[in-house]
Each structure stands twice: as C-alpha cells, then as structure tokens.
Amino acid sequence: MSSWLVTTSRSFLLVDGQSGEARVLHEGSGLYYGVFFDDRAGFPLHVVARRRMVSSPDPAEGERGTILLFDRALRCTGELQAPFPMRDMHQILLREGTLWATCSYDNMVAVLRDGKWDAWYPVGETAGEPRDVNHFNTLAWVDGRLAIVAHNLKNPPSEVLLFDWPSRVLAERFPLGAQSHNLWRDGGRWFTCSSGEGRIVDTGGGGIVTGGYPRGIGFGERETCVGISEPAERMARDLSLGQLQFRDRGWNLLRSLLLEGEGLVLEVVPAPAGISAPDEAPRRSFRFAP
C-alpha cells in the first residue's frame, strides 16, 4: 500500500500512489500546507490551512491562518489559532512538547508551548514593511537542534539555520540550494529541495534533477514521493498543474501522478499505517503521466 497525505492549493488529500485514487479530507479553507503527526506525541494530526489562496485578490496582510486538527479517523475535530495573525504559514513541527509554525509573511515562527503562544523572530524582528525577508518555510528536528530553512529570495542563496533548544540561540548557519524547501540529513549530508533549480541538492555537491518546482517530500518504506509544482506567475499558481513523482531508493523515476485541478503541491507525508478516509470523504481520480 502506498498512501500519502498531500496538501495542495485547494485540498487536503489522502492519495493512493498506486491507483491514483484520492479522498478529499478537507477543502474550502484556502491553500493547505504543513502536515504533522507524531505517534510518540499522540494524535491529533495537524494541518495548516491559510484561509486564503495565493491568487486571492484580498490583501495578504489580512490573512488569518489556522492549524486544523484531525483524529485517527481523519475527521477534522477542531483547530488551533494564535492570538496574533499567522500569515503565509508553511511547515509545522511538533516536538519536545512544543508546536512550531513558520509564518513567512512576518519573518516569524509561531510557538505554542504549555498552552501559551509566542511570536518568535529567529534572526530578530524586521522593522517596517516588507517583513518577509528570509521567508522561513521549513522546520526539522535534528540531534536536539531545531533547523529552519530560510528561502532568502531577495538575498540568495537559501540557508539552513540551526538553533539550540530550548535556548533558541543560533548555533550554526550554512548555504544550501536556491528557493529551498524541506530539509533532511542522510549519511552525514544535508539535503533540500532546491526548488528554484528544479533539483534536490546536498552539502556533498550531489544533485537529482526533478524538473518543475520541487517542494514537499515523503519517504515511504519502498518509495520516495516528491511534490512538483508547475512554475507560474503568482496569480496563476492556484490554477497550475501539480504532480507527485514516485522514485525508488536510487532516485530513479518510477511514475508521475498528475493532480489536475489542485494547483500547487505544498506538502507530502506518508500516511500513518492503518488509517483510511471517512466514508463521507469525496473521491477524486487522478491520472498518471504517459
């Protein structure tokens, strides 16, 4: 079984990577992004909903994102909202009793710990507008440190920032990729989706060409699934064609599933074992690329 939790411009989906069949777990709350669950921390599953599309004519400063909560039956049971706006949210992470959510619009990370919200500015609060300088988009927990990817669109290249926990002191930073998203480490090397180059790159100088705009990657037992968005002008992105690339352990492309009508692909996570969509969840069928 190859099941994946996928967020797009329009939906939160449970996708069967073999048949192309999907179930819609949530829609109608704008663009969906980060997905996180951890059995060690217990459910619920957390999913970002921005409540605004990228192509929305409404001003971005009015965005009020939320974090939706889903139970093991994949039914939405509630949400988390900070007392301050969470705008342009990307990835989320739950670890050490703490929830982090990147809020790129404000160059900020929202932190929920012991029931209290905190607006954290990893490199200091930006004075004036625009506040989105580093475009923090990715969170990872590695060897007791919190890692954040800074997209750095206006001042490339992208960077990885490592913070000691719980002090939040910046311990290390290094460049990696262009317009980068996602972060993982394997064999002593750091990897990222270098979205602006259409590649996956690592600190050892390696690279895998994916084409498109790679963002969102999940590691299953037998396959790796990479989300690919179609490069497009901002106002056209929600109408673009996204896809899921399925690759073997040697990064060889096995098949590509075209997510027609979904727009951008933002996050890809292997579905927890033993879960299935509610009976009432709408069905969608996607086709594989020839």
Structure notes:
The model has no long low-confidence stretch (mean pLDDT 94). 0% of the residues lie in helices and 50% in strands. It has a 5-stranded antiparallel sheet, with no helix packed on it. The chain has a 5-stranded antiparallel sheet with strand order 20-21-22-23-26, with no helix packed on it. The radius of gyration is 18 Å and the shape is globular. The protein is mainly beta.
Helix content: under 10%
Task: Describe the global form.
Answer: globular
Bin the strand percentage.
Answer: over 45%
- The largest beta-sheet arranges its strands as 24-1-2-3-25
Mean pLDDT value: 94
Rg computed from alpha carbons, rounded to a whole number of angstroms: 18 Å
How many beta-strand elements? 26
Number of H- or I-type helical stretches: 0
Query: What's the N-to-C terminus distance?
Result: 22 Å
Unreliable stretches (pLDDT < 50, length at least 5) are: none
H-E order: EEEEEEEEEEEEEEEEEEEEEEEEEE
Structural class: mainly beta
Describe the sheet with the most strands.
5 strands, antiparallel
Present the secondary structure layout.
Elements: E1 3-8, E2 11-16, E3 21-27, E4 32-36, E5 45-49, E6 66-70, E7 76-80, E8 89-95, E9 98-103, E10 108-113, E11 116-120, E12 136-142, E13 145-150, E14 159-164, E15 170-175, E16 180-186, E17 189-194, E18 199-202, E19 207-209, E20 213-219, E21 224-229, E22 242-247, E23 253-259, E24 265-270, E25 283-285, E26 287-288
Antiparallel strand pairs: 1-2, 1-24, 2-3, 3-25, 4-5, 5-6, 6-7, 8-9, 9-10, 10-11, 12-13, 13-14, 14-15, 16-17, 17-18, 18-19, 20-21, 21-22, 22-23, 23-26
